[in-house]
Amino acid sequence: MKRKRWCFLIRPATRAFVREARRTPGFTWFDGLHGYVYGRWPYLYIGIGTGEHPLARLLGPLVRWLSRLFPSKGSTIADTYHGKAVPLETATQLVTVEEEIRLTDLENVIPYPYARDIVLQNPDHIVVLECPCRASRPDPCLPLDVCLVIGEPFAGFVAEHHPRRSRWITPDEAVEILRAEDERGHVHHAFFKDAMFGRFYAICNCCACCCGAMHAHRLGTPMLASSGYVCRVDADLCVGCGFCVDFCQFEALSVNDGWAAVDTDACMGCGVCISKCADGALSLARDPARPVPLEIRELVASAR
User: Fold this and answer.
1) 246 & 116 share domain
2) Which pick of 23, 80, 244, 291 has the fewest CB atoms within 10 Å?
3) By residue range, what is the domain housing residue 129?
4) Same structural domain for residues 161 and 277?
5) pLDDT single digits (tens) 164-198
């Protein structure tokens, strides 16, 4: 009876989150607490991580002490909290899934030792959230509401705890957000996290000036994985205008000897530059040396 009373006091989406935590193999109580804190207070969590929150200096030592007391599964944060760059078409597939999906141990797609499953429950349940990275910056890129939380129990949990900073949207509305962000030159990343049951939970639309993951990646923490593609330039079509260079968030494009050149080591194959070339000189090509693309329809078909 007491248990039922306590359950009554806990919000429905939080109960669903706890139930999913209990069903997840190897998911400890501390993992569950970590996931709750991350989902319940993402602006504090991300703000401390980026160093932008006023409490970062005060709480930073506490966070580092807790990290030593309860070490993460991986050797670095990149092992347990990371994203994969996805072109617009791939991102669109992820928000228009019409069936529940369970794909596990996608090591070839998500090249990290942890957090590499795609388990979509109620995939049409989508919430758009004000981006914690942008919100933590003093002069952020706009709009703020560009983070897409997909499936349960994540979407319900976010909507329940952040009613003023999130809203429910349809898959069609999610596609429109992705297209608008692509037009602005922002990169789509599918994010995975150990505390989110070791799986995919959101698509963020990222800019190098605001995104904490892109900032960390630029400083040498490999938090982002290539889409599996790389940009190619058709020298016969390129006029060397340099317009694409202005949109490359990874600084992988430059103009040399009259046409665009690609730094393939820096290129993440996000595809943002492709639509910016009015002459059709840019395209994405599959790079066998990189991880397998996160093409959800192909992955589901191959798993059957």
Assistant:
1) no
2) 23
3) 2-43+75-226+294-303
4) no
5) 999 999 999 999 999 999 999 999 999 999 999 99
Does one domain contain both 263 and 181? no
Q: Are residues 238 and 219 in the same domain?
A: no
The answer to whether residues 7 and 131 belong to one domain is yes
**Cα–Cα distance for residue pair 189/285, rounded to 1 Å:** 18
Instruction: Name the residue with tokens 């066998």.
Output: 288
pLDDT digits (tens, 9 = 90+) for 100-117: 999 999 999 999 999 999
* 95 and 207 fall within a common domain: yes
Rounded distance between C-alpha atoms, residue 193 and residue 42, angstroms? 13
Statement: residue 73 has pLDDT above 90: no
Does 65 have pLDDT greater than 70? no
Residue 52 forms part of a structural domain: no
